[in-house]
Amino acid sequence: MEYRYLGNSNLKVSAVGLGTWAYGNDTFGRVEDQQSIRAIRAAVEAGVTLIDTAPAYGAGHAEEVVGQAIEGIRDKVVLATKCGTHRDGPKYIRDLSPKRIRKEIESSLSRLNVEQIDLYQIHWPDPDTPLEESVEELLKLKREGKFKYLGVCNFKVDLLKQISEMTDIISLQPQYSLLKRDIEAEILPYLTDHNLGSLSYGTLGGGILSGKYQERPEFEDEKDNRAGFYPFFKKENWPQTQSLIKLLKEIAAAHDQTPAQTAINWAISRAGITTALVGAKNEKQARENAAAADFELSEAEMLALTEESNKVIENLSN
């Protein structure tokens, strides 16, 4: 595993991090809690240090699972969670009001069973709450020792500039993969210029870049809603993605790796990406994801994947 400092902080994180959205048990299909706990522990044993979660994942359930999994190994992980987005039944509600932020961090600390969060992140912007009010409350919580460092997720450059005038942040968490690269135009250069780290999510495009689907999947499980978040599974987009997946399989075979490992390796090799967050539903996936940092794609392979990605993205519809 490769380790990197996150932005200008002293947090040293693994190049492959663990995303825990699936452990909420309401978006990526059903997953048994003990299996999730074993996957988390397998990831840590394989060298993963960064674990990213959020209250919105299963209305706090993912945080509870993470809390159980890291019991006894808290010193081995960099723990990241979020505020500002919560569940109301099937709906995701964005609320960065000071009262809500304080309530959420106290609940997160309790569910995670920790005294302090390493990286606390604004999950999504809230257009109904002035950012100044949110930041003021976050700074109070930081002074109280509730978290070490502040980060943001899903912010555009204008909001990054705004919050950076109010306080120090160390990282951004954007969606990024071979099928989603819009942050390359302005956001990644901004992060690099300002010494900010990045925790990219959606590294496998909801699983499509794993190459495991021979045909377009129909997610019949009522708890599997990934097709609503990732447009790559749409009927009109599925054929467009296949040339890229074919190339992933070819390059993966040349390295005796999986397509998923190859897609992860491409992401963590891109300029401006500190850590690629990847989910793992079981121990095998956790270990394989971690091993994605243990080989090197050639310049020609990186270029081939990037060029094919460009062609595919041009033809995708949102």
Account of the protein in words:
The chain has 318 residues and is of the alpha/beta class. It has one domain (3-215, 260-296): NADP-dependent oxidoreductase domain (TIM Barrel). The chain is built from 11 helices and 12 strands. It has helices at 33-45, 61-69, 98-112, 131-143, 157-166, 187-193, 226-229, 238-254, 259-268, 283-291, 299-314; strands spanning 3-5, 12-14, 16-19, 50-52, 78-83, 85-88, 91-94, 117-122, 147-153, 171-173, 197-200, 275-279. The strands form 3 sheets. Strands 3-4-5-8-9-10-11-12 form an 8-stranded parallel barrel, surrounded by 5 helices. It has a two-stranded antiparallel ribbon with strand order 1-2. α1 (33-45) runs parallel beside α10 (283-291). The two termini are 35 Å apart.
What's the helix count?
11
Number of domains: 1
Radius of gyration over all CA atoms, rounded: 19 Å
Globally, the shape reads globular
Helix-strand topology string: EEEHEHEEEHEHEHEHEHHHEHH
CATH class: Alpha Beta
User: What's the average pLDDT?
Assistant: 91
CATH topology: TIM Barrel
CATH architecture: Alpha-Beta Barrel
**CATH-assigned homologous superfamily:** NADP-dependent oxidoreductase domain
Offer a quick outline of the entry:
The protein has 318 residues and is of the alpha/beta class.
